[in-house]
Amino acid sequence: MSIIQFSSWLDKYRAVNKDTICTVYDKEATAFDEAIGTLSSEAHTMTVTTLNELVLDKNSKILDFAACTGLLGTKIHGIGYTNIDAFDGSHACIEECKKRDGTYTQFISEFVTDAAPLSVATDTYDVVVCSGGFTINHLPISVLSKWIRIVKPGGYVINTFRNRWKDLEPMYNEGKFDNEVQRLEKEQKWTFVRKQYSDPENYHTCYVMHVHKVL
Ligand SMILES: C[S@@+](CC[C@H](N)C(=O)[O-])C[C@H]1O[C@@H](n2cnc3c(N)ncnc32)[C@H](O)[C@@H]1O
User: Fold this and answer.
1) Closest Cα to atom 13, ligand 1: which residue?
2) Is any atom of ligand 1 closer than 6 Å to the C-beta of 88?
3) Number of the ligand 1 atom closest to the C-alpha atom of 68
4) pLDDT tens-digit profile, the chain (215 residues)
5) Domain ranges in the chain?
6) Could you write out the DSSP letters of every residue in the chain?
C-alpha cells in the first residue's frame, strides 16, 4: 500500500467522529484487508509472540477486541488457540470475521462508549487482545477498565497500536492514555508485564504494545 492510500484511509477516520467511526468500517469492511490490513502484520507478530511467551493453555478463552475483519484472530488460531471470540462495533466487520471458518467461536457486535458497560459477563476471558483499536476516533480509554472487568484474575490484556496516536488523538494525548494505564496499576486493578516498541529508533511511528496481568 502507498502512503497516499494510507493517508486516504486516515482521512476517512477524520471525516467521522468517535460516535460514528464504525460507519467507516461498515462501508469498507470488504476492502480492509487489502487496503490496510497488511500494514498491521508487525503488530500481529508482537501479539502472537507474546501469547507464545506467556505459555497459555491452547483452550484459553481469548477475546479479539476491535477484531475488524479477523486478521489477528486468524494468526492466533494459526498458533493453535481454539477458543477465540470476536468483538467489534462494526456489524460488517463481524460478518467478515464469520467468514474465517473455524477461527472464532462467538461473535459480539457492540459499540463501546464511555457511558455503557460491556455486555460481556465479569471474569469471562483469560486474555483480551486488541491490535489497532486505539487510533483516530477509535476506542475510548475507558475501555481499559472495562477489559479488566471481563478478564479473569490472573488473565492478560495485550494492547498494541501505533505509538503516535498517544500524541495525535485528543482522546489519548497529553498523557491521558498513559495516566489511565498507570491509574489502574496504582489502584492494583492490573499489574505491568511488558511495554515493547516494534522499532524503538522510530519511536513515534512504530507500534507500542502494552501487556498487563489482571489482578
Ligand atoms: C484498525 S481496526 C482493527 C484491526 C484488527 N484488530 C486487526 O488487527 O486487523 C479498528 C477496529 O476498531 C473498531 N472500533 C473502533 N471504535 C470502536 C468502538 N468505539 N467500539 C467498538 N469497535 C470499535 C472498528 O470497527 C474497527 O473494526
Assistant:
1) 66
2) yes
3) 27
4) 556 667 888 999 999 999 999 999 999 999 888 888 778 899 999 999 999 999 899 999 999 999 999 999 999 999 999 999 999 999 999 999 999 999 999 999 999 999 999 999 999 999 999 999 999 999 999 999 999 999 999 999 999 999 999 999 999 999 999 999 999 999 999 999 999 999 999 988 899 999 999 99
5) 3-214
6) --HHHHHHHHHHHHHS-TTTHHHHHHHHHHHHHHHTGGGGHHHHHHHHHHHHHHT--TT--EEEET-TTSHHHHHHHHTT---EEEEES-HHHHHHHHTSTTT-S-EEE----SSSPPSSPTT-EEEEEEES-SSTT---TTHHHHHHHHEEEEEEEEEEEETTHHHH-TTTTTTHHHHHHHHHHHTTSEEEEEEEES-GGGTTTSEEEEEEEE-
Class of CATH domain 3-214: alpha beta
- 37 pocket-lining for ligand 1 (C-beta < 6 Å): yes
Ligand 1 near 73 CB (within 6 A): no
pTM, entire model: 0.97
